[in-house]
Amino acid sequence: MLKITQQQKDYALYRLERAKEDLESAVELHEDGHYRAANNRAYYSIFHSMRSALALVNVDSSKHSGVIAEFRRLFIKEGLIPVEVSQMIGAAFTIRNASDYDDMFIADKAETAEQIQNAKVFLDQISSYVEKKLEE
Predict the structure, then answer these.
(1) Checking CA distances to 8, which of 67, 70, 92, 109 falls within 20 to 30 Å?
(2) What angle do CA 101, 42, 113 make, to 5 degrees?
(3) What is the pTM (predicted TM-score) of this model?
(4) What are 124-136's pLDDT values in tens digits?
(5) The Cα angle at residue 37 between residues 32 and 39, in degrees rounded to 5
């Protein structure tokens, strides 16, 4: 296995921080009743978490679908991250797209709360993984 460079570590930590900020924003937006925006921030928490892990293997993509595919290939299929989180990624991506682009999508409080909870679980999984890798 290749040694993780300082730049990769910096990117990983920076992206984790962005994921945490997005999650905090999602919680605040949810509390204020802004469910569509909260869904967006919950998804971006997951997205930046994935990019944090990918930074450690020097992989990124210019497309969201590419980030998702690479994360699933390198971390879920390899058994480094539990397979259950793959479903969280798909749901978050679908709901974020509907929240952002579907004029007729109605985001509700309970569904948004579930997305936020999934983002918390996801962030915890990735944070633990990244911290472990940085200690090696």
Answers:
(1) 92
(2) 100
(3) 0.96
(4) 999 999 999 999 8
(5) 105
